[in-house]
Amino acid sequence: MAFSNAGGGPQINVTPLIDVLLTLIIVFMVVVSMDKQQGETAQIPQPDAKRDSAPTPARTIVIQVVWSNKNSDPTVKINQEDVPWQNLEMRLAEIYLKRAEKVAFVRGDSDVDFQFVADVIDAAHHAGVQRIGLLTEGRKVEGE
Q1: Would you state the pLDDT for residue 23?
Q2: Are 75 and 28 members of one domain?
Q3: Which of 49, 99, 101, 102 is the most exposed place for a label (fewest CB within 10 A)?
Q4: Rounded CA gap, 23 and 15, in Å?
Q5: pLDDT tens digits, residue range 82-130?
Q6: Cα 115 versus chain centre, distance
Q7: Which structural domain range is residue 28 located in?
Q8: Is 38 a member of any domain?
Q9: 106, part of any domain
């Protein structure tokens, strides 16, 4: 290190220190880039192959009102399961008894009278469903 006596007192020349510092930074950058293993290794838990997991029940409940034929009342399905009209409220009460989310969706065919959809909504409310959404078919554009 060189000292300069000009200007009233000794001053340290820091230029060589900066050169050493920059050289060390470059060396560390080169050493880090040469490391083949980037990051930490993680152990991810694997599912137990012995345990057969039962399929989880669907969280979304969709009640469908579908025409089976034009001469009779439409049929009702809860997530693709056929349910008689007489047992609809009881079946919904069984489903929503164990659930925290009391939400259902109702989908009706385009040519079903709304009275049938209203009956399904009424039965769902009596069974304990708090929120009901209506599902519609998406817009169909000619030529698709």
Answers
A1: 95
A2: no
A3: 49
A4: 13
A5: 888 898 899 998 888 888 888 899 988 888 888 888 999 999 999 888 8
A6: 34
A7: 3-33
A8: no
A9: yes
